[in-house]
């Protein structure tokens, strides 16, 4: 009986010595990151150009690329070869089609195209001239 009592007391005292739980030290949360601003869409400074829109709306890009030769010359090559003074002639060539200036592969005619739209396209192409 005494033994069991002392055991009881022992368990009492041991209970007293249980360490008081310490408050968990405040761990610094990483500062909230500013909302990521979406990268602007990849676009050249000429995007939104009415000439480019016309080109994208026609079949031009099936044969032309801005910066690489495809079936036709790259538009940058065309821009390097011509000046604004050739605009009329180039617009006419887009409408009528033809070959000979870049090789033997002909450009298909675009008879449905009106001259003003063709000129807009040429204007855009010539704007690609490297400074
Ligand atoms: C079937 C393929 C094809 C399509 C479609 C096409 N082209 Fe071409 N384009 C060519 C080829 C080939 C040449 C090179 C012609 C040459 O040697 O004179 C060329 C040349 C050109 C030239 C330079 C002309 C010159 O005399 O140097 C311009 C400008 C041009 N294309 C614009 C356009 C535009 C704008 C469109 C869309 C309305 C278009 N092309 C659609 C194949 C194409």
**CATH fold title of the domain at 50-126:** Cytochrome Bc1 Complex, Chain D, domain 2
Q: How large a portion of the residues is in β-strands, by DSSP E?
A: under 5%
CATH level 4 superfamily of the domain at 50-126: Cytochrome c-like domain
Helix content: 25-40%
Q: Could you spell the SSE succession in H and E letters?
A: HHHHH
Average of the residue pLDDT scores: 82
Q: What does this 3D model show about the protein?
A:
- Helix content is 40%, strand content 0%.
- The chain is an all-alpha fold and 131 residues long.
- It has a domain at 50-126: Orthogonal Bundle (Cytochrome Bc1 Complex, Chain D, domain 2).
- Residues 40-44 have low confidence and may be disordered.
- Bound molecules: heme C (HEC).
Keywords summarizing the entry:
131 residues; binds heme C; mainly alpha; rod-shaped; Cytochrome Bc1 Complex, Chain D, domain 2
Tell me the layout of helices and strands.
Layout (H helix, E strand, L loop, with lengths): L1 H15 L33 H8 L17 H7 L5 H10 L18 H12 L5
Helix pairs in contact: 2-5, 4-5
The structure holds heme C.
The site of heme C has 28 residues, from helix 4 and helix 5.
């Amino acid at each position: 009986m005494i033994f069991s009592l002392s055991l009881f007391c022992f368990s009492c005292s041991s209970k007293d010595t249980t360490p008081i739980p310490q408050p968990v030290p405040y761990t610094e949360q990483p500062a909230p990151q500013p909302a990521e601003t979406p990268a602007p869409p990849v676009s050249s400074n000429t995007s939104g150009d009415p000439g480019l829109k016309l080109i994208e709306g026609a079949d031009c890009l099936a044969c032309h690329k801005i910066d690489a030769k495809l079936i036709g010359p790259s538009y940058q090559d065309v821009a390097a070869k011509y000046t604004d003074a050739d605009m009329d002639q180039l617009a006419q060539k887009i409408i009528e089609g033809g070959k000979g200036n870049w090789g033997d592969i002909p450009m298909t005619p675009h008879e449905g195209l009106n001259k003003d739209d063709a000129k807009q396209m040429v204007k855009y192409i010539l704007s690609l001239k490297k400074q």
